[in-house]
Structures are given as structure tokens and as C-alpha cells.
């Protein structure tokens, strides 16, 4: 994805999912919580169809994405499709809010257990408190607490009761260490010279940079590094004009070999995609997965998982370049399938290898969900940058965080 430098990607924000039964007040709640009319509110069951994702800044949580979901008790054929979308939202959720509104809470507790199994913090909320007497509120809150062993927040979207307390409780519930991950890890520090080699092609339209480049550059500036950015054709000229070799060179995977062949011996080399393998996923698992490339043959089946959705482009890395590299090595009969966006097969066992992009458009929670699915089905998985580094024989020579 191409972005301007001042855009804040939603994938980097804390994803807060709101879950509950149909007409449990999710849309009214999210509007009251955000202070904006994010979702349509109506008394008709099933008003929320596809999940609504709203990027916001909310004190004291900071930048976050609020996800309004369809009721998990939706009915009928369309209801089943809406529940699938709710399940997808759950896979992206860093912090879950489950709205309770009655004594019958078996479905709420089922979802509570799902999130706990995924190590996702859950905040149970008793909604619509304006409709209950004080005795009824205390009774329901006690029942919820007894079943979840969690602190229960009582709120009313209509009156605003409890909203402030809920925000403070959510802030205390943010996963430990969230937001502390760094793209470049400990590869560079304050004052280090970093050279970014960034090809500008049709995937990065004029006036824009692709998202991994923007995010990496932003982090390097925050680290107070000395940063120089060049296109591939100016790479050698840039090295000649530097008084000292850069400590680190970061490049696009597509020009890995060229940059590696011409880099100073003192300089470390890595790629944006390799950095994102660690930042968004499980780097050791990706490296182990890359070894499966050597076991492929012309009868193998490979899945390319592209995380963003875009119209096919000439010389596209996932649709053209990586399949061409694989078929050149293993034969034209090698079967290469492609999925994009959130499309990802439930059954992965027919594939011998999964190759995912850098996943800059997804939050880490969802990327790890995919990795866990592949791991549980014993299917090796890697990403674009690690794949290209392995195929070009330089994986052991590149710097990894």
C-alpha cells in the first residue's frame, strides 16, 4: 500500500473489538464510547452487517481502532455470513469488550473463553444499566464476575454512566509490552547512519511511498538515526558520497542481490520485508519455513498470501516475481495459488508451503493468528523477503532484528 509520510496506519493501532448479542447495544455503546456517530443505531435486529472499523485517538488509550461487530447470535443464511465476519474481527482483536445484558449469558461466556484461549484480554461490560434497578444491576454484575473472574464495568450508552471508568479499565488491560515492538529492533541506535534503498515503481505511485518504507523511516527518525534515502539507480553514487559506510542498509527485497553485491563490507544489510517478518510475525518460524523451499518439486503446491488487495500490476512481487523464481528452480508444473486481503483457507494441508507478504496492512494479532493456523496444521510458512533472501543464497548474510 502507498501512503504519505504523515498518515498513521490503522494496522499499528490497538484494535478494540466490541462483541455481544444482537441488539445488546453495541452500536449505541461504540457511539457513546467514541463520542461520535460511528455506527447506525436502530431497534431492528441485525442493523450492523459487516464489522465497522473506526480509527480514533481516545484518551487514555491513545491511537486505536474500534470494531463494531454483528451480533454473535445472528440468525439465518445472512446471519451466518455476518457471524463469519464477526469471527474475523475477533482474530484481529487486541483487546475485547463483551457486552452482557441479561442473566442468560452462555454465548457471551463461550466468546469469553475463546478470547482467553487466544491470550486476548477481555473486559466484561454490563450494558443498558439505565434499564435496571440498583438491585438488578448488582445481581447481574455479580453473576458476570462469578463466571469470568474479571472486573465488571457497568455502563449506560444512553446516559454515559461508566464510560470514563471503562476507558480507564481498558487502559489497564492493554496487553503487557504492547506498542514496544520496534521494526529495526536493536540493529541501530541514536547517531547511526542508515541508508534506505527504495525502488520507485508502479507499486509506489509518484509522490507516495509504500507503507513499510514510511513506517521504517518514521522509526529511524524517532531513534535519532542519520537517514539517507535513495532510489536503486542512485545507490552506488550515494555510497561514494558518504564519508563513512552506513551501519545498516535497508532495501526492497526485489533488489536484494544487487545491493548485497555492491555493499561495503562493514555495512549490515536487510530488507523491509525481512524486518516486518519479525515486527509483525514470528521470524524464527519464517526462517524455518524457508528451508521447506529446498524440499519442493514440480508437483508441489505453494500458496502466496497477499495481505492487501490491489489490481494486478506488471512485475508484481507476489503474483509474478516470486512464482517465476520458484518455477525457474522447480519447473513450470509447480502449482502456485494466490489469495489476497483477508481471504485465507481454513484447510491449509494441501499446501507444501505458504509465502506471505510483509503484512503491513494487518495488525500483529491477525498475522499471528494465521501463523498459528499454519503451525497447527504442520504447514511451513515464510514471507516474501525471507523467501527471496533464501532463493538468492544470502539469507545467512542479512541482518535480522
UniProtKB/TrEMBL annotation:
CDD domains per the UniProt record, alphabetical: Era_like
The species this protein was found in: Blautia difficilis
Residue intervals of the G domain: 15-128
Protein name: [FeFe] hydrogenase H-cluster maturation GTPase HydF
Keywords associated with the record: GTP-binding, Nucleotide-binding
Domain Hydrogen maturase F dimerization stretches: 184-281
Record domain Hydrogen maturase F tetramerization: where: 285-397
Amino acid at each position: 500500500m502507498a501512503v504519505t509520510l504523515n498518515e498513521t496506519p490503522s494496522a499499528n493501532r490497538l484494535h478494540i473489538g466490541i462483541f455481544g448479542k444482537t441488539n445488546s447495544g453495541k452500536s449505541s455503546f461504540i457511539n457513546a464510547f467514541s463520542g461520535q456517530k460511528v455506527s447506525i443505531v436502530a431497534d431492528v435486529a441485525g442493523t450492523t452487517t459487516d464489522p465497522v472499523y473506526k480509527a480514533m485517538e481516545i484518551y487514555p488509550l491513545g491511537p486505536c481502532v474500534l470494531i463494531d461487530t454483528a451480533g454473535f447470535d445472528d440468525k439465518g443464511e445472512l446471519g451466518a455470513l455476518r457471524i463469519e465476519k464477526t469471527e474475523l474481527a475477533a482474530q484481529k482483536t487486541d483487546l475485547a469488550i463483551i457486552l452482557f445484558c441479561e442473566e442468560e449469558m452462555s454465548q457471551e461466556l463461550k466468546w469469553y473463553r475463546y478470547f482467553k484461549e487466544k491470550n486476548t484480554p477481555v473486559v466484561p461490560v454490563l450494558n443498558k444499566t439505565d434499564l435496571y434497578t440498583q438491585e438488578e444491576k448488582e445481581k447481574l454484575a455479580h453473576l458476570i464476575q462469578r463466571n469470568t473472574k474479571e472486573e465488571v464495568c457497568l455502563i449506560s450508552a444512553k446516559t454515559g454512566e461508566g464510560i470514563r471508568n471503562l476507558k480507564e479499565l481498558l487502559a489497564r488491560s492493554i496487553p503487557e509490552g504492547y506498542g514496544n515492538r520496534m521494526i529495526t529492533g536493536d540493529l541501530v541506535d541514536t547517531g547511526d547512519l542508515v541508508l534506505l534503498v527504495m525502488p520507485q515503481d508502479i507499486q509506489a505511485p509518484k509522490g507516495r511511498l509504500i507503507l513499510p518504507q514510511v513506517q521504517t523511516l518514521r522509526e529511524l527518525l524517532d531513534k535519532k538515526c542519520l537517514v539517507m534515502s535513495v532510489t536503486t539507480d542512485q545507490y552506488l553514487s550515494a555510497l561514494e558520497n558518504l564519508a563513512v559506510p552506513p551501519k545498516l542498509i535497508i532495501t526492497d527485497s526485489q533488489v536484494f542481490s544487487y545491493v548485497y553485491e555492491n555493499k561495503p563490507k562493514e555495512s549490515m544489510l536487510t530488507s523491509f520485508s525481512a524486518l516486518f517478518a519479525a515486527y509483525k510475525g514470528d521470524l524464527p518460524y519464517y526462517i524455518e519455513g524457508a528451508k521447506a523451499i529446498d524440499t519442493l518439486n514440480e508437483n508441489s503446491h505453494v500458496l502466496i498470501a497477499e495481505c492487501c488487495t490491489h489490481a494486478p500490476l506488471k512485475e508484481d512481487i507476489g503474483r509474478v516475481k516470486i512464482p517465476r523464481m520458484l518455477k525457474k528452480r522447480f519447473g513450470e508444473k509447480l502449482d502456485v495459488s494466490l489469495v489476497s486481503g483477508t481471504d485465507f483457507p481454513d484447510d491449509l494441508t494441501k499446501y507444501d508451503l505458504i509465502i506471505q507478504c510483509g503484512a503491513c496492512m494487518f495488525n500483529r494479532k491477525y498475522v499471528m493468528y494465521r501463523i498459528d493456523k499454519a503451525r497447527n496444521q504442520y504447514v511451513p510458512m515464510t514471507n516474501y523477503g525471507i523467501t527471496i533472501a533464501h532463493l538468492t543464497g544470502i539469507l545467512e548474510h542479512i541482518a535480522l532484528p
